[in-house]
Write a structure and sequence with these properties.
The chain is α/β, with parallel strands linked by helices. Helix content is 31%, strand content 31%. The longest helix is centred in the last third of the chain and has 14 residues. Bound molecules: 1-O-pyrophosphono-5-O-phosphono-alpha-D-ribofuranose.
Length: 209
C-alpha cells in the first residue's frame, strides 16, 4: 500500500490555489471538490490525506506532527518561530511585511514609538535590531485603523496591492521582508517518510510558475 502523507492546507483563497498546485503535481483528491463541510479528504491511490485548517494554525499541526507537511505563509512562520523544515517557496500568496504610517510620517526618537500589529514578535525583532524603543499594541485585524484613530504611530502589517493603505492615507515607511507561501514539513516525518515527502516536494517544484 502507498504510504499516506497527511497534508494541512490553509482554508480560503490561498488554500484553493495551493490545492490546485498539488493536483497538478499529481496528488489529486477529487472528493475535496464536493460541496460539503467535511474537513478531511483522502486519496489512498496517490497516498495523500488533506485537511483544511485555519491558515494561522497550519504550522501548529505540522510542528506537532498531526500533519506531516503543510503550506503556511512566511509571515506566520516568522511570527510563531515554528520548529519545522521549510522545504519550498511556492511563489504564491506573495506580499510584503511592512511598517506603514500616515503620509509624511516622521519619527521623533525622543518618544517611544507606538506600533499596532498582529505580528508582535516580528515587530519586536525588527525594532530591536535598530535599538528603537517601542510600545506594542496587539490587534487582531483592521490594523490600518490604529494610526488613523491615534491608537498608534505606525503599523506592522501585510501589504499586497497597497490598496488598503492608499485608501486610508497611509504609506509604507519600511519594508521588513518579502512574504510568500512555503511548503513545510514536520521534522520527524521528514526523517521517517523522506522518500515520499521529497517526491512531493520535487513534483511541486516542477510546476511552480
Ligand atoms: C490584509 C492585511 C491588509 C490587507 C492588505 O488584511 O492585513 O489589511 O490585507 O492588502 P492590500 O495591500 O491588497 O490592500 P485582511 O484582508 O487579511 O484582513 P485583516 O484586516 O483582518 O487583517
Amino acid at each position: 500500500m502507498t504510504e499516506m502523507i497527511n497534508i494541512a492546507l490553509p482554508k480560503g483563497r490561498l488554500g484553493d490555489k495551493v490545492y490546485s498546485m498539488f493536483e497538478k503535481a499529481g496528488y489529486e483528491c477529487p472528493s475535496i471538490k464536493e460541496k460539503n463541510r467535511k474537513l478531511i479528504f483522502e486519496n489512498p491511490e496517490v497516498g495523500v490525506r488533506y485537511f483544511w485548517v485555519k491558515p494561522s494554525d497550519v504550522a501548529i499541526y505540522v510542528e506537532r506532527g498531526a500533519a506531516d507537511i503543510g503550506v503556511a505563509g512566511k509571515d506566520i512562520l516568522m511570527e510563531a518561530g515554528s520548529d519545522v523544515y521549510e522545504l519550498l517557496d511556492l511563489n504564491v500568496g506573495k506580499c510584503r511585511m511592512a511598517v506603514a504610517g500616515p503620509a509624511g510620517f516622521s519619527y521623533d526618537r525622543n518618544n517611544e514609538l507606538r506600533v499596532a500589529t498582529k505580528f508582535v514578535n516580528v515587530a519586536r525583532e525588527f525594532y530591536a535590531a535598530s535599538g528603537t524603543d517601542i510600545d506594542i499594541i496587539h490587534l487582531n485585524g483592521s490594523i490600518e485603523l490604529a494610526p488613523i484613530l491615534g491608537l498608534s504611530d505606525v503599523i506592522v502589517d501585510l501589504v499586497e496591492t497597497g490598496t488598503t493603505l492608499r485608501e486610508n492615507n497611509l504609506e509604507v515607511v519600511d519594508v521588513i521582508t518579502e512574504i510568500s507561501a512555503r511548503l513545510i514539513s514536520n521534522k520527524s516525518s521528514f526523517k521517517f517518510k523522506t522518500k515520499k515527502i521529497v517526491e512531493i516536494t520535487r513534483s511541486l517544484e516542477s510546476i511552480i510558475e
